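CORE FACILITY INTAKE
Project code: CF-77B
Contact: R.S. (postdoc)
Sample description: multi-component assembly, two entities in total
Requested service: structural model of the whole complex
Turnaround: standard
Below are the sequence entries exactly as provided by the requester. Do not edit them.
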Amino acid sequence: MRQPLLSAIVLALGLVLLGAHAAPAGAASVKDPADLGPPRGAPIEEAMLAPPAVPPPIHRNYPARVIVHLETREVVKEIADGVRYDFWTFNGTVPGPMIRVRQGDTVELHLKNAADSHMAHNIDLHAVMGPGGGAAVSMTPPGHESVFTFKAMRAGLYIYHCATPPVPMHIANGMYGLILVEPPQGLPKADREYYVVQGDFYTTGAYHAPGLQTFDMQKLLLEQPTYVLFNGREGSLTGANALTSKVGDTVRLFVGDGGPNLVSSFHVIGQIFDNVNVEGGTLVNHNVQTTLIPAGGAVTVEMKTLVPGTFLLVDHSITRAFMQGALGQLVVTGPAAPAIYDKVSSGPVASSPAAAPMAHAAAPTAAVNDAMADGKRVFGQICAACHQGNGMGLPGAFPPLAMSDYLNANPKGAIGIVLNGLSGKITVNNTGYESVMPAFGAQLSDDEIAHVLTYVLNNFNNKGGTIAPAEVKAVRAGDKPR
Amino acid sequence: MSMRTHIGLLLALLATAPAVAAADYVAIPGGVFVSALAVDGAAARIAIEPFAMRVEPVTNAEFLDFVRMHPEWQRGQVSSLFSGPQYLAAWQGPLTLGPDARPEQPVTDVSWFAARAFCASEQARLPSWYEWEYVAAADVTRRDARQDPARNQSILDAIQGSTGARPGAIGWHPADVWGVRDLNRLLWEWTGDYAAMFPNADARVPGAGASLALCGGSALAFADKNQFALMMRVAALTALKPADAAPRVGFRCVRDPPGE
């Protein structure tokens, strides 16, 4: 962590030294073995890609001048379905685009601040060796541009962020990204590369409270975020936005933690990291289940995807994953690998409800239709994270709600499950599951629970039916259903 | 200062307490307060002499009158030493406001030099930072409400709630306990001494003004680190050179009491 006082002293010393070396003799800079000399060849314009895209690998064998264009923009966007937030960004995305250069490159960084910004902004890149990491020379008012250069002296994966006061607020609103400094020999080949940055967000309203939310200063000070997210939006890496790979691929993730406050326990459920560049440096660890990413730090992880299926990216401080949004998906397609992972069909241990033949649901009434829209919203915001958008669940982890014999045999029993959660062994469609579903009674109203259950019962090829808010209220009050 | 002056100022304050038209000034009694900015690294008690402050920020209509009377401050005629390309950029023409600059909105996109000239034209001056901060510490009922988290949050809400928009109309929020409107929520305002607010923060020297930009710089410069809206304001102002203009930066003027 940068020491403020030390920075100030270093800055002051730097100014003194600059003054001392103003003589024509010139300032002979210290020779550092990592310095590969002055930039050569034509300047290279860095591709500015929206996350989770990663700029292409570098196949150069000489140091170049790389031109990077960043623009700070304050934009209102969705942080979750139906929830908007006033983000402060680099280039309109959270995180800002990933920058990829080679050790010894000279980076010419153009920082523009959009004319309609409220705020002055600047940039501190942890890859920079110099006062403020660039912040001291990049304070930019709205409608202006700052330009500075730095030489990428040390290979590694580094965070960049805005460092304008109040610094925690600028970071909490999304002003961060990653810069990769490749070693001279480059990185080993990977089949897929993706870019993910975790951040914690502090909104005045509760988790999923709809509408425009503003920044909550007290929650920031208490370090009690409303949202913990990958890439600045719940669902940015799930469903249609999921990361993908094929069986046999090597997948490399560049993962940062912008903070401002939380340290990430980064884990991919059902995978083991073959290689981890610890803290983004050159130390490589192998066969890692969960790796720590400091706030203001980063890590490169590589894994081989041997088995098809859906793998969840989580912060394994696991409440954040299932209650605050820190959830992504890596979908691996290809031939099954039963020698590595196989489902051995397990029959029911105790008596289970007989699987009734599936009948098509009766046409819903108008009243049910009203409940449907709200139910769909609740499903998308809460249930889909585990049970998936198509209600099919995840094999081995989360049971299906679609065509579910368990649900259709006792629809009203689901009220208590949503209210109070469910743990222990259950059998759904002849498959055993043993996982933990959290209680949503405190988070969802009677109406919302009735609506989402009615929605589920009338979709995903289930058998139809209606749950009334009064029934939820009764179960909440302690009455047993049926 | 005599007791009589005190009473006179108090009477003036009472007399102007109801809603007043633009260009009215309200008397601000002197006092002592603790600035959120550190002096030599520590919180400091600052003595404020009595003065009078404009109840509302200067509007487009008022600034239009000013440039009509003082053509040397019209867009296209003003010296490039005193203004940049952003000067009055939202106005349709040098003497035409247009749809993006309604008469009742606060004027923005004005340089520090232009703001100073406007104030001089009405026998006034820009406030010092401390004068501005002293008055802005108030809310509707309290002279110093800065330690109330709800008050601070509501200011942040108002600022963030207007992302991407130009400053709206004056007077949506009630006047504060002094009778002054819209100090905290609507826009950033030039102060006369903004360039000297921080050691080494001479905003006329490129780069030096940005010492505040350092992570450590902000921690060192603020004695009260809970005033986020104030930090934003200081950052926004210190990033500007006096000839710069910005869409959210306007101003209001203050006057010294007669006879001083």
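Facility notes:
- The radius of gyration of chain A is 26 Å.
- Chain A has nine helices and 23 strands.
Invoice: internal transfer
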